[in-house]
Amino acid sequence: MLREIGPALAGLYDVRPTVVLGPVSRGSLVGALTAAALGVGFVEMRKRAGSSVDSDRWVRRTTAPDYQDRHVVFGFRRKLIGAGDRVVMVDDWVDTGATARAARALVEDCGAHWVGAACIVDALTDPRLRHDLPVRSLLDVRQL
Question: What is the reported pTM?
Fold first, then answer.
């Protein structure tokens, strides 16, 4: 079953990404599986990361309140995503869309093309986000 998750998530969009972005921690796991299935690069979107970690330039964004009402700072090394990239974010679960919105802003900060957010479970509280981000999922929370 685990080996089927990457290809299943990879098949949710018609546009083929050149980079998969995965937020720590479970997004890193399913994102890496998806990138391997697609044969493309993977970038980990880290929490509270930045210039204090190393001397490379970082892009960072703070989320709107998440499912625990927290504002989380996400980031990655700027050189990992370029202007010509097509990026899909992959995660295990989407609830408020806060992480996906921050990921989209980071991708756009790099001048890259945002494809969307692919997840295993869609539990979005605001259904408009399915279209706006766009979000694609393998399961709806009501199926669980």
Answer: 0.90
